[in-house]
Write a structure and sequence with these properties.
The chain has 160 residues and is mostly beta strands. The chain is 10% helix and 36% strand. It has 1 helix and 10 strands; from the N terminus they run αββββββββββ. The chain has one helix spanning 3-18, and strands at 41-43, 59-69, 74-79, 92-98, 101-111, 116-117, 120-121, 124-125, 130-139, 156-159. The longest helix is centred in the first third of the chain and has 16 residues, at 3-18. The chain is elongated, with a radius of gyration of 33 Å. The model has no long low-confidence stretch (mean pLDDT 89).
């Protein structure tokens, strides 16, 4: 008799013992599966480049900032006053130092869409996708300033 024929009855017997029908009793339990999705948001960087500024005409610029918040996460999008804010005029200003003297060009950046009412941020709802917000800027005409590169840094914040 071949070795395979001798092992066949033993193998079939073991398989029968391991099947559920051969078991005398059983018990069940549950497997709990869970995941937590936290509210989250990210915001990209943006640039407003006014190019060549002229005192007579001022300048305009456009840019885009992208926000991505998890689905249905409530959030707000705000900007601070920048590094060179002038409280008397209430204007943000680009600054350059020429010959030891600071010079300024006032400007106004605006994020498209009514994101605030009376200065209070309007809550938005996350989509889970990148949402682009157009930013436009106007550098005021009338600044009598020397040739230089003027700049400011404004912090944009997505609060959630």
């Amino acid at each position: 008799m071949s070795p395979i024929r001798r092992l066949l009855p033993l193998t079939l017997g073991l398989i029968t013992l391991c099947t559920p029908a051969a078991l005398a009793a059983s018990s069940t339990g549950t497997l709990t599966v869970q995941a937590v999705v936290a509210n989250s948001c990210t915001i990209g960087n943006a640039t407003l480049n006014f190019g060549t500024y002229t005192q007579a005409a001022g300048a305009t610029s456009a840019g885009t900032v992208t926000v991505n918040c998890s689905l249905l996460t409530p959030y707000t999008l705000t900007m601070n006053n920048g590094l060179n804010f002038e409280s008397t005029s209430g204007k943000r200003r680009m600054q350059a130092n020429v010959g030891g003297t600071d010079y300024f060009i006032p400007y106004t950046p605006v994020i498209a869409g009514a994101l605030t009412v009376g200065g209070v941020p309007i809550p938005l709802a996350g989509t889970g996708l990148d949402v682009p917000y157009a930013i436009t800027g106007i550098a005021d005409a009338g600044s009598n300033v020397p040739a230089a590169t003027y700049s400011d840094t404004v912090t944009m914040t997505v609060g959630f």
